[in-house]
Amino acid sequence: MKRDYRDEFGKWKEASLLDDDLVAELYVMEENEAEMEDAFYKDLSFGTGGLRGVIGAGTNRMNVHTVIKASKGIADYLNDEFGDEKKSIAISFDSRIKSELFANTAAKVFAGCGIDVYIYKELMPTPCLSFAVRKLGCKAGVMITASHNPAKYNGYKVYGQDGCQITTEAAAKIQGYIDKADALDVRMVSESDERISFVPDEVYESFINEVLGLSLIGEEDGDKSAKIVYTPLNGTGRKPVTDVLKRAGFVDVHIVKEQENPNGNFPTCPYPNPEIPEAMRLGMNYAEEIGADLLLATDPDCDRVGVAVRDKEDFVLLTGNQVGCLLLNYVCERRISMGTMPKNPVMVKTIVTSDLGEKIADHYGVKTVNVLTGFKFIGEQIGLLESQGRKDDYVFGFEESCGYLSGTHARDKDGVNASLLICEMFAYYRKMGKSLVRVLNELYERYGYYLNTLYSFEFEGPKGQEKMKNIMERFRNLKGELCDQKVALTLDYLDGVDDLPKSDVLKFSLETGAGIVVRPSGTEPKIKIYLSVPGDDKAGAQKAEKELSDRLKAMVETA
Q: Which residues are catalytic?
């Protein structure tokens, strides 16, 4: 909602703000008109991903007052939606700057609105929050995190009673309640209020046991002697990941010391995203130094996992698509071998995830369901199967951004589950004398080579928003050709495709077999372009991908 940013700035300047850092920032901002405009020209957008933004003063920033406003809106929504039913909400938080403050602030708002609160007593991963919502019978959940974004960001993810991130419909309803809330004037109780309690310890133990129950190898099926390096990237993963690996029999696990403890400044990793090489660099150096075989890295809220493996003398970074396809193949292979593959198995992936996954699924007789970008849509499919009495038909779900889930215990991607699955897969093939690189090449030989890449273009501020609209319009108005190649099929998800929710996403299938997806990010001021390029081999795919990506970059820059 755009407004006179100077008026809004004045209201905040005169208010009794609850964080002294905001007061100091406003005094500095008064001398910077551009910064003032960007901080106050609109409210921070709320959607299915909740809130996400730069930490700081302003209505378009993450701070205690935008958290208060969102929490009051959600509380009012829950009170109206569930009436006289008993209502509770679960809350967790990661290691980011002010995450614990935001979590406690939200708890005090919810309790002040008559809603019981279960909050983790220490930082805990996103999948643990999703699990707790269902385990405790809560009506909703809140996770304070900005996932893998740089240190200047924080966020506020909202979950429904099914443990999934909220639907588009619920987000629209909640937005209406948030719009009515006053960020500067909301009743809160004290942290000692009787409605606020810690999540019981047995919930964490139940989560760990659920993850361990998804194991696919016994002692005789794998070689667990591999030397493993793990880094939580200064986030939430250290406790649950190391607990699970130790209990599963992986005892030679080494943690990257500089990234072991929670630190929202991420001093050795400014962009704590395990999808990018820079985030993995320190871990790879340590792995090479001690002669490790496998490197795992989880992002700050431990829902993503990055992987690097030793290939002869070098360490090779695997992409999210590659790891997802390896895991899918492994899960199917093992479940068939164990006799636990359901009669009508289902795999779920996003539309921007490698088409290689669908070919692997077809080979094993597994149905593929393609959904919109965002793991919440994979979680929704699990819920749909559950409503049909088919929950056990779900065998695996993944997205290209290093998100994986092999069970139904959580309804969001789970870095703890994935870490165990990756280590077990490594041990399974290690006993056969195979590296993961060799197994991946075998998949390419069987199904064909696929090169998947992602390009992000950032556009800050009001002018950036207009630029993003122009870019999407330019792609939407294309007729018959893209990058001098004929388009075989165009799918505009804004019109609705395959009963999926309408979304500002375009997918182009070229006659060469390449696929291009263009969409604005739902949580950041970015346009994202995903390429899927088949080829006879890696060199051929790389050449074709470069030609496409160069032309696409030019289109974005000149829009």
A: 147
- Within 10 angstroms of residue 259's Cβ, the number of other Cβ atoms is 24
Is residue 363 predicted with pLDDT exceeding 60? Answer: yes
For residues 208 and 88, the answer to whether their CB atoms sit within 8 Å is no
DSSP 3-state of 310: strand
pLDDT per position as a tens digit, 315-337: 999 999 999 999 999 999 999 99
Specify whether the CB–CB gap between 223 and 431 falls below 8 A.
yes
What are the distances in angstroms from CA 527 to CA 271, 465, 557? 18, 10, 11
- Give 130-166 pLDDT, tens digit per residue: 999 999 999 999 999 999 999 999 999 999 999 999 9
Residue 426 and residue 423: Cα distance in Å, rounded?
Answer: 5
Q: What is the pLDDT of residue 465?
A: 86
Q: State the pLDDT at residue 2.
A: 56
How, if at all, do strands 314-318 and 346-350 pair? Answer: unpaired
pLDDT at residue 462 greater than cutoff 80: no
Nearest to 395 by CA among 380, 408, 384, 412: 408
SS3 content of the chain, % helix, strand, coil (to 5): 40, 20, 35
Q: What is the pLDDT of residues 77-87, one digit of tens each?
A: 999 999 999 99
**Residue 399 and residue 320 in contact, taking contact as beta carbons nearer than 8 Å:** yes
* Residue that the structure tokens 């992602």 belong to: 454
- CB under 8 Å, gap of 24 or more: what pairs does 23-28 form? 25/56, 25/57, 26/57
- Alpha carbons 82 and 160: distance in angstroms, whole number: 12
d(CA 70, CA 51): 8
| Sequence-distant contacts of 176-179: CB under 8 A, at least 24 apart | 176/73, 177/72, 177/73, 177/74, 177/76, 177/77, 177/80, 178/43, 178/46, 178/69, 178/70, 178/72, 178/73, 178/74, 179/1, 179/43, 179/73
- Considering only CA atoms, give the Rg of the chain: 23
User: Which residue from 142, 144, 73, 143 is spatially nearest to 113, judged by alpha carbons?
Assistant: 73
- Pure H helices in 259-370: 277-290, 320-338, 356-363
